[in-house]
């Protein structure tokens, strides 16, 4: 079923917040974050608050948010806080972290950045909801939640408009409740057969397992297309391993007069989606931006007996 995810984000900014605001346009998860990335154009600090709604889906979905505040202690050292909430029909993830980053100048205009972060998280699995998403079944279990400490580290390199960074979260391998595992099997229809999802396997008391190491790769390039026009390209990979990445996103932003912005991009996280954004600068220090995401997703159709 095609659906339009409309994401409204309001950023109260002291400068262009491309490094962080680009995260808002990610469908999954909003908590991807590299603590080493710095906002280099700020005077004293920057605050960004983003509110996410989904008005065009069939089921009522709670609103989500992301908020960042970063303060400049000197030319090279920053401190900040980052908080987010991501909730859908299957799970809810909340986190709040403090982070710090330091910029070391290697040569003129050539910088190495290091960041660390620490905070708490809560990961809720809505076990009973799986009966509405996968093939209809009879199980009903209470929701399960895992809470703990999340430690992370990030690195970045910046030179002549190019910024490349890598970060790792869940270094302490905290607990998580895993999603129910799929039950697959052969279905025969006449002379044809297929290997399909039959149901889900949910334990009466799901056991917690260790969180896998989270990884995040960002590559951004900024260049001037004119005296008052700036172009930014942003490539983002989330949770990279030998099989690929859980999330891949590519965005392009045009910035006019350091105020207004227009963005276009594409992403994949199992499904392919597209997004566009428009930012209006009230002043050079305050900007309001809206982003719309177009995505195709599958839900169980009881009448058609199919996804």
List the defining traits of the structure above.
single chain; 14-stranded antiparallel sheet; two-stranded antiparallel sheet; 2 helices; 4% helix; disordered N terminus
Q: Can you describe what's shown?
A:
This protein is mainly beta. The chain has 2 helices and 18 strands. The chain has helices at residues 18-24, 130-133; strands at 2-11, 45-52, 64-72, 77-87, 91-107, 110-125, 144-159, 162-169, 175-176, 181-189, 192-201, 209-210, 214-224, 229-241, 244-256, 260-268, 272-281, 287-296. The strands form 3 sheets. The protein has a 14-stranded antiparallel β-sheet, with helices on one face. A two-stranded antiparallel sheet has the order 9-12. The longest helix has 7 residues, at 18-24. The chain is globular and about 70 Å long.
Question: How is this structure best summarized?
Answer:
With 307 residues, the protein is mainly β.
Distance between the termini: 9 Å
| Overall pLDDT metric | 76
Low-confidence stretches: 1-31
The helix/strand order is EHEEEEEHEEEEEEEEEEEE
Can you count the beta strands?
18
Count every helix, treating DSSP H or I runs of 4 or more residues as helices.
2
Q: Provide the β-strand percentage band.
A: over 45%
- Residues in helices, as a percent range: under 10%
The coarse silhouette is globular
Taking all Cα atoms into account, the compactness measure Rg is 21 Å
* Alpha-beta classification: mainly beta
Strand order, sheet with most strands: 1-18-17-16-15-14-13-8-7-6-5-4-3-2
Largest sheet: 14 strands, antiparallel
